[in-house]
């Protein structure tokens, strides 16, 4: 099986970011959504990114952000990749001329292939659990059997992943990458370094087997 990349999202502290990188994370995610318990300020995100070594992808998560708000963040914070988690259209995502991934909240009956095809310029599609009224970060898993084979974009699997279930998730869905936040936390926004290490080890072990 090809190597699967790991993203640790909802980072709010420098020590947690460095622990994720030390464990082997490929990407670090920052939540720019005020309603999230994992939301960060411009200053927090800048300070964390400044502390990172090279070759770690920095990702900013947005939920229906206004052009003014998103523009201010992009001017202030050096992000490598944008992650749109709201109702953004393909045109809105493309308008920033930055690499981006689009999150889809999966539920039974969805045409995931068509939804992927609706974002032809996306670098990848993130699949998360659908929970009424909540854009993401719920810690809920979804039925992985809903994911069809042969999708047009690299798939990032999210939603309820933990060190205990990520190997099974990868075996069943063969994603390009996995994305975790709550599954490696001590409390909301505060990461458990041992859980991060266990999560990334499980990802590497299953793909090396």
Automatic annotation (TrEMBL):
EC number(s) recorded for this UniProt protein: 5.3.1.24
GO molecular function: phosphoribosylanthranilate isomerase activity
Keywords assigned: Amino-acid biosynthesis, Aromatic amino acid biosynthesis, Isomerase, Tryptophan biosynthesis
Pfam families: PRAI (PF00697)
Cross-referenced InterPro entries: Aldolase_TIM, PRAI_dom, RibuloseP-bd_barrel, TrpF_fam
Catalytic activity: N-(5-phospho-beta-D-ribosyl)anthranilate = 1-(2-carboxyphenylamino)-1-deoxy-D-ribulose 5-phosphate
Biological pathway: Amino-acid biosynthesis; L-tryptophan biosynthesis; L-tryptophan from chorismate: step 3/5
Record domain N-(5'phosphoribosyl) anthranilate isomerase (PRAI): where: 7-201
GO biological process terms on file: L-tryptophan biosynthetic process
Family matches, as PANTHER family: N-(5'-PHOSPHORIBOSYL)ANTHRANILATE ISOMERASE
Family: Belongs to the TrpF family.
Protein name: N-(5'-phosphoribosyl)anthranilate isomerase
Organism: Pseudomonas frederiksbergensis
């Amino acid at each position: 099986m090809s190597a699967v990349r790991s993203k640790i999202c909802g980072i709010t502290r420098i020590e947690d970011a460095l622990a994720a990188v030390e464990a082997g994370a490929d990407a670090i995610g920052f939540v720019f959504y005020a309603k999230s318990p994992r939301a960060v300020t411009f200053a927090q995100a800048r300070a964390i990114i400044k502390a990172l070594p090279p070759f770690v992808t920095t990702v900013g998560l947005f939920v229906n952000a206004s052009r003014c708000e998103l523009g201010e963040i992009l001017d202030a914070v050096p992000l490598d990749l944008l992650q749109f988690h709201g109702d953004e259209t393909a045109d809105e995502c493309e308008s920033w001329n930055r690499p981006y991934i689009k999150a889809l909240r999966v539920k039974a009956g969805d045409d995931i292939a068509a939804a992927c095809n609706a974002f032809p310029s996306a670098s990848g599609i993130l699949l998360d659990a659908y929970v009424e009224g909540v854009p993401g970060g719920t810690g809920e898993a979804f039925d992985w059997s809903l994911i069809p084979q042969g999708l047009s974009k690299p798939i990032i699997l999210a939603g309820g992943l933990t060190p205990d279930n990520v190997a099974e998730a990868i075996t069943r869905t063969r994603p390009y990458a996995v994305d975790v936040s709550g599954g490696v936390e001590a409390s909301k926004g505060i990461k458990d370094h041992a859980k991060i290490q266990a999560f990334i080890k499980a990802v590497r072990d299953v793909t090396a087997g």
